[in-house]
Amino acid sequence: MHEQELPAALAVDTDGNFSRLVEIYQDRLYAFALRLSGMPQDAEEILVDAFVRAYRALGEYSGARIRSLALKPWLYQITLNVFRNRVRGRRLSLVSIEAEDALPARRAAGHAASQPDAMLEQSQLRQRLAARIAELPERERVAVVLRHVQGYSYAEIAELLEQPVGTVKANVHRGIRRLREALKVDEDWR
Amino acid sequence: MSIENQHPLAEARKMVRELRDLGTISAPTTVLPAVLERLGQSDAYTCCESPIGPVYVAYNGLGISAVMSAASATAFEEAFRARFARPLRPVAALPDKLTRSWEQLWTGKTRSVPDVDLRGLSGFERSVLEKAREIPRGEMRPYAWIAREIGRPKAVRAVGTALRRNPVPLLIPCHRIGRSDGRVGNYAFGATAKQAVLAFEGVDVGRMEELAQAGVRYYGSDTTHIYCFPTCRHARRITDAHRVLLRAETDAIDAGYRPCKVCRPAIAA
Q1: Which of the residues B5, B19, B41 would you substitute to probe the A interface, choosing the one with the greatest number of A C-beta atoms within 10 Å?
Q2: From the list A18, A31, A55, which residue is nearest B25 (CB)?
Q3: A30 contacts B25? CB cut-off 8 A
Q4: What's the total number of domains in chain A?
Q5: Is B232 a catalytic residue?
Q6: CATH of domain B123-208
Q7: How many angstroms away from the CA of B59 is the closest CA of chain A?
C-alpha cells in the first residue's frame, strides 16, 4: 500500500492498517525525535507514545475526517507535542538534565577509540553535530532538523508548524549560525 | 580536516551534508511491536510466582490479558493463540507497575487491582467477572449469589460458564465463588488449586466442607438476629456462644433473622 492510499484504508479499517502507517512513517519520525531529543532511548519512547496517540485520535475521528487527513504533518505535530510534553515534565528534575548534558560527549569519546582515522573524524563531527543540535533553543532546533536533517521545504515546514514561512526561515538561519559558532568553539577547545 | 581551516562556504556545505546524513537512520525494530502491544493488538508474557506455583501471565497496553498454568512456555503460547488469536512474545519480567500490583495481590495490603483486558467477552460475562471482583479476600459466595446480584437470578449455570471463561483467574477471583450447598467446587486450575488459593487467603477450607456436609449454609447471631454467609467478615466475629447454624433462608426468616447488608445472603430488607 502506498502512502497516498493510507488515509482511505485507515478510514475503512483503522486496526487492520495501523501497522502499515507505523512502517511507512517510523524512520522519518524516529530521525526527527532522535535529533530533537539527542537520546536514542528517549526518541524510541517518544515515537511509541506518538503512534499510540495517533491511533487513539483516529478512533475518535469520523471516516470522512480520516480520509481528508494530511497524515505526514499530522504525525509530525503529534511527535513534536509528545516531545514538548516530555521536556516540560522533565524540567522539574535538575539531575537528569545534567546527566544528559554530559553523556553525548562522553559517549563520543568512548566510541571514537575503535575506529580508523578517516571514519573517526567524520563520525566525530557527526556526533558533535548531533550533540550541538540537541542543545539549540527548541524553536531553532525544530526548524533546523526539519529543513536540513529531514530536507523539507520551507513551505512544508511552515504548514507543519503552523508558522509563517518567514519565521521558519529566520529560525533555520539563526539555528545554523548558532551551530557553526558552537562547532568553532569545540575546535578552539581542542 | 578540521572545520575552522576551510573556506566558509565549503565549511557550510560540509555541515549541511553532515546534517542531511543525520537524517538517514532507521527506527529500531522494536518500535512496531511496542506500539502494537500498547494498543492491545499483540501481547507479551512471562512466568510469575503465585500461591499455586508458577503461572504464565500475558499483558498488553490495556492490562493483564491472560493468566494460565501450562506445562511449558510453548504450551502456553499455543493455548493463548488458540483463544485470543493475537501475536505473543516472551519477556523477562512484567513491567514495574504490573509487577507491583501482582505482588500486592498476594500480600493483601491493598485492594487496588491491576487493569485487565476483558475484550472478547460478552456483556453478561463481564458483569459476572466484575461482580466476582467485589468479593473480598478470605470470603466466598455461591454461584447463585452472583446470578442474583447481577439481576439474572435464573442464570446460575451461565454464571458458572462465564467464570470458567475468566481469562485472568487469580486476578479476578473466580476461586472465591463456590457451590450453593457450600462446597468449594471446581476451578480452572483444578479443585486442589482452588482449595490452596482459598486457604492462602485465609478461608478454613476443611471447615467449609464440614458445614456443607452438615447442610449448614448460614451463620446467624442470636444477639443481633442477623445471618451471613459463613465466610463473611461479620460472621467470623460471632463468638461461639452466640453462633447459630442455619440450614436455609426460610429457617432464618422463621427465627426472625434478617440478612446481613454486607454479604447479602438474600436481598436485605
Answers
A1: B19
A2: A31
A3: yes
A4: 1
A5: no
A6: 1.10.10.10
A7: 16
What's the CA angle centered on A35, arms A31 and A41, to 5 degrees? Answer: 80
A140 in Cβ contact with A175 (< 8 Å): yes
Answer whether CATH 3.30.160 is correct for domain B37-107: yes
**Contact between A48 and B15 using a beta-carbon 8 Å cutoff:** no
Q: How far apart are CA B263 and CA B130, in angstroms?
A: 16
Domain coordinates of chain B in residue numbers?
37-107, 123-208, 216-259
Q: Report the residue from B3, B27, B39 with minimal CB separation from A55.
A: B39
Question: DSSP letters along B131-151, please?
Answer: HHHTSPTT--EEHHHHHHHTT
Contact A148 B20 (CB under 8 A): yes
Residue by residue, pLDDT tens for chain B (269 residues) are 455 555 667 777 878 888 888 888 888 888 999 999 999 999 999 999 998 889 999 999 999 999 999 999 999 999 999 999 999 999 999 988 888 888 888 887 766 778 899 998 999 999 999 999 999 989 999 999 999 999 999 999 999 999 999 999 999 999 999 988 878 888 878 888 899 999 999 899 888 889 988 889 999 998 999 999 999 999 988 998 999 999 888 888 888 999 999 999 886 54
The CATH number of residue A6's host domain is: 1.10.1740.10
Taking the C-alpha atoms of residue B112 and residue A79, their distance in angstroms, rounded to an integer, is 33
